[in-house]
Every structure is written in C-alpha cells, then in structure tokens.
Design goal:
The chain is α+β, with helices and mostly antiparallel strands. The chain has 2 domains: about 80 residues, Winged helix-like DNA-binding domain superfamily/Winged helix DNA-binding domain (Arc Repressor Mutant, subunit A), CATH 1.10.10.10; about 100 residues, Alpha-Beta Plaits. The protein is built from 9 helices and 4 strands. β2, α8 and β3 form a beta-alpha-beta unit.
Length: about 190
C-alpha cells in the first residue's frame, strides 16, 4: 500500500492526483477558490484532463457549478470530503488496526510494543515498505506466545497491504532504543 499518497494509489491517474490536490485544499483552506492553472499544477495534470475530471466531480456535487476555465470552488460541507481526508492520513487507522490485532492474537499482552518504519511514518510507497513491531514479551507469557506474534504479523501484513516484521527486545529500555524517537508506542499506552 502507498501510505504517502493513498488516494493516488487507490484511484490511479488523473482522478487520484486531482482528488489528492483537492483534499489538500480542503484541509488547508476550503473556502479559497483555485484557478484551473493552479489546480493543474498541484495535481500534475493537463488542463484538458483537469476539466474532464472536474466535470465528473461537479456531477457528484464535490465542487460548485462552474463553467470551463472558471475558478474551482469546493463544496466544503459535502459529506465525502471527510471520508477522503481520512484516506489521506491513515496513521491513526494503522495504530487502531495494530491495537485490535494485538488484543486478538497476543495473550497476555506484551510488556511493550512500539511501531517504526515507513508505514507508520506515512512514507511507504510500495508493498515492500515495512511496518516494524518492536516487542518486549510478557514475563509470564506461555511457551507458545511467539506463535501469537507470528499470527499477528501475518494478519497485519494482510490488513495493511505491507510487510510487517518484528524485533524482540529484552526490556523496555532496549525497545525504546531500537525504535528511536520516531517510534509510536502502542503498549503501554
């Protein structure tokens, strides 16, 4: 999965690039109109491609009615903008997904679990970009506790569309050193 530009990955071509540019605009200043030249540059599309895609978005009600060549005004209150914004920033959804899968597959919970790598940083652009789990196993974990870790890795790889790997740390201090300052701690929360 491409976590850097997920809309372009899910909606390839002109439409995806245009949606990405419009969501950025909706986030920054939804009331400011955009000239076709400005939007064409932001979306990296030709003016002809832009007008065709804008016509379709107008039919959906995402932009205000306009004539060819006129500035583009977003219908900021349209219900779809919120959903599209969620698709452009998947960080919190990745964290929630990891939490859900940890609760389902690791009993008892690890003493420490943090995330690092391109997926959680939002820079992943290819399925081979990894999410790394840094785990300190519980002191009272059963002998087969690692089997749950392997199931967790498999299930998360499927759910995220990227490779999920793990590194085991002996204690929380080692885990924090492994992850560095950019790691996102899941457990303890």
């Amino acid at each position: 999965m491409n976590f850097r530009t997920p809309l372009s990955a899910l909606v390839p071509g002109t439409s995806g690039r245009l949606l990405t540019a419009l969501v950025d605009q909706h986030t920054a200043d939804p009331g400011r109109p955009l000239t076709p030249d400005e939007l064409s540059k932001d979306a990296a599309v030709t003016t002809t491609q832009l007008e065709t895609a804008l016509f379709r978005l107008g039919l959906l009600g995402l932009i205000a009615p306009r004539r060819r060549g006129e500035p583009v005004r977003l219908v900021a209150s349209h219900i779809v903008w919120g959903a599209l914004r969620q698709l452009t920033d998947l960080h919190s959804r990745v964290v929630d997904t990891v939490r859900e899968h940890v609760r389902a597959h690791l009993h008892p919970a690890p003493e420490h679990l943090s995330l690092s790598g391109a997926v959680i940083e939002g820079t992943a652009t290819h399925a081979a970009d990894v999410l790394e789990l840094i785990i300190v196993r519980p002191s009272a974990g059963p002998v087969d506790w690692e089997d749950g870790v392997n199931v967790l890795l498999t299930q998360l790889s499927l759910a995220l569309g990227n490779v999920v790997v793990h590194r085991a740390a002996r204690d929380i201090q080692e885990a924090e050193a492994m992850g560095g300052e950019s790691a996102v701690r899941i457990i303890p929360s």
